Amino acid sequence: MSSDDAVSPVVATILLVAIVVVLAAVVASTVIPMAGNIGTVKSVSAVVTLNDAGTLPVVTVVGGADAEYVEKLTVYVSGTEEAVISVSNPLVGKPYTSDPKFSLGAVGRQTVSIAASFDDGTVQTLYTGTFVFKG
Length: 135
Fold this sequence. Notes:
The protein is α+β, with helices and mostly antiparallel strands. It is 20% helix and 37% strand. A hairpin with a 4-residue loop joins β6 and β7 (123-133).
């Protein structure tokens, strides 16, 4: 067997490096555009309880770095078609609930969700949890 029958080790190394560089470029060009769709998470804390009768949710924004930027706070309860509470520019520390004359109609175990709309146009779920309503 003569020495010119195979590729030299130097050429083989160069080819391997070139293949790795091309593969890395293909993977990077596929993955990097996906990172552009990642948004930022807002920091707002809210507490949910039930009113004394156990028939309506009571929501209080308790703080967070982005609490002052909340333009609208909306509360939904499973089993209802529309928002139970909708507050524009909620104040930190002030409890919000529906009008006591409002009949939620939800009895038993129900899911409560709070969504916040911010002044930059983003909407974020602040809370989702389960409560037992008395009806």
